[in-house]
Write a structure and sequence with these properties.
Length: about 425
């Protein structure tokens, strides 16, 4: 990996350039090919290392705002090329970026602060996200990125698919579509060595079975969702597509900024009232962003770009999510869980505000200055409230890479 890419997150073009260089250096065992195109016509590339029938598929860039996966994917490809035993009887396949259109709109390759990160923030509306789309739109309306991803799974039939994800602030955790006994130990050891907190009760996995500290197994199709109002349902995502071939999916999350508040197993003295307060704050913050939106709406007549669609979609989730939090008993009674819900409740309105801000800046709207101050205030409160500390990029990549290799090792004899 070049020194430049070790210092910042690569763009899709840089990732493709690096993958092409690897394929040119090792043409006997390494190939790069196009496997689809995005809605805007951007190519989707697959880098393959090795020719064994048993396959691992690694997917980066499913969420545009989670850039660590691009760096990890390149590091993993280089590691597989250099360590013969990793490809002795397993081929490795790397989908460079599942959503290149989204990646083109998230523009913080070297964020200096959480505020800086949000100034370039983009995450598409749920139905436009390649992995989540199958849970929200009918099969005949799936985006081409989703069809390309499932087509690769159909071709490779991987015993393990790994989706590289991340969070702007929090800890590291793993989500599995089937249990992988033995994975939790190397995962926790890696996190401890690199001083990355383990998110022991991630709100994303509320109520899911525990395989080990920070490792959760997704619920069965007949289990009720943790947050009934949310339209994205992991059980209907592309993560389960590998099951039709006896495989499984591991989703590996790693933070950009770490907070030890999500790694505190101590019982919370009053989790239900605390979560109700967070729900009320979520509603209050969302209403503040909605007031901005109502104020500028007449000046945005006809505007319907991806930033504005995503901001509106995020705000539309808030009433149902707040009701879920207020009326559902806490899935976990630890301080870690309350901390994770706190972070979740901050993210939704902050992200909507950040994307709306970019829309207003592009149109030089007079409300942009006020909204920028709000995004700055909320970003600072998030940073200070969670005592956030930057995780060096090389640590983000090393931890995610180690976890992928450990998952490949422990899953290979447990799939059917």
């Amino acid at each position: 990996m070049s020194l430049l890419l070790k210092l910042r997150y690569p763009t899709v073009s840089e990732l493709v350039y690096s993958a092409r260089a690897l394929a040119a250096q090792r043409p006997g065992i390494c190939t790069l090919r196009q496997v689809g195109a995005s809605r805007a016509g951007r190519p989707l590339h697959l880098l393959s290392v090795g020719r064994a029938r048993r396959a691992v598929l690694v997917v980066a860039g499913a969420h545009a705002n989670e850039p660590t996966g691009a760096s990890t994917l390149l590091a993993l490809a280089e590691r597989v090329l250099s360590e013969r035993q990793l490809r002795a009887d397993t081929s490795w396949h790397f989908l460079l970026c599942a959503d290149p259109d989204g990646a083109s709109l998230h523009v913080t390759p070297t964020p200096r602060s959480l505020f800086d990160y949000h100034l370039g923030f983009f995450r598409p509306a749920g139905p436009e996200q390649p992995e989540w789309a199958p849970s929200m739109v009918p099969p005949d309306r799936l985006p081409p990125e989703t069809r390309a991803l499932t087509g690769v799974i159909d071709e490779l039939r991987p015993y393990l698919q790994v989706s590289l994800h991340g969070t702007e602030l929090g800890g590291s955790w793993v989500q599995l579509t089937r249990d992988v006994p033995g994975l939790a130990e190397p995962f926790a050891k890696s996190a401890a060595q690199l001083h990355i907190p383990v998110e022991t009760a991630a709100s994303d996995a509320a109520g899911w079975p525990v395989s080990g500290s920070g490792v959760r197994v997704m619920p069965s199709p007949d289990a009720g969702p943790a947050y009934p109002s949310l339209p994205d349902d992991a059980r209907h995502s592309t993560w389960y597509h590998a099951h039709r071939y006896g495989g499984l999916t591991a989703v590996v999350e790693v933070p950009m900024w770490a907070s030890d508040l999500v790694d505190d197993p101590a019982p919370h003295p009053a989790p239900a009232p605390a979560i109700r307060r967070l729900a009320h704050r979520l509603l209050r913050d969302a209403r503040e962003v909605e007031r901005f939106l109502r104020d500028v709406q007449p000046r945005l007549e006809g505007a319907d770009g991806p930033l504005l669609r995503a901001a509106r979609w995020g705000l539309g989730l808030v009433p149902g999510l707040a009701a879920d939090l207020m009326h559902t008993p806490p899935a976990d009674r630890t301080r870690a869980y309350v901390g994770s819900v706190d972070a979740f409740a901050r993210r939704v309105p902050l992200r909507a505000a950040a994307m709306l801000l970019r829309v207003l800046q592009q149109s030089d709207d007079r409300a942009a200055g006020r909204l920028e101050r709000l995004v700055a205030t909320w970003s600072e409160a998030f940073t200070v409230g969670f005592r956030a500390r930057w995780v060096p990029l090389e640590h983000q990549v090393e931890h995610q890479s180690r976890t992928v290799v450990a998952a490949a090792h422990h899953a290979r004899d447990r799939t059917v």
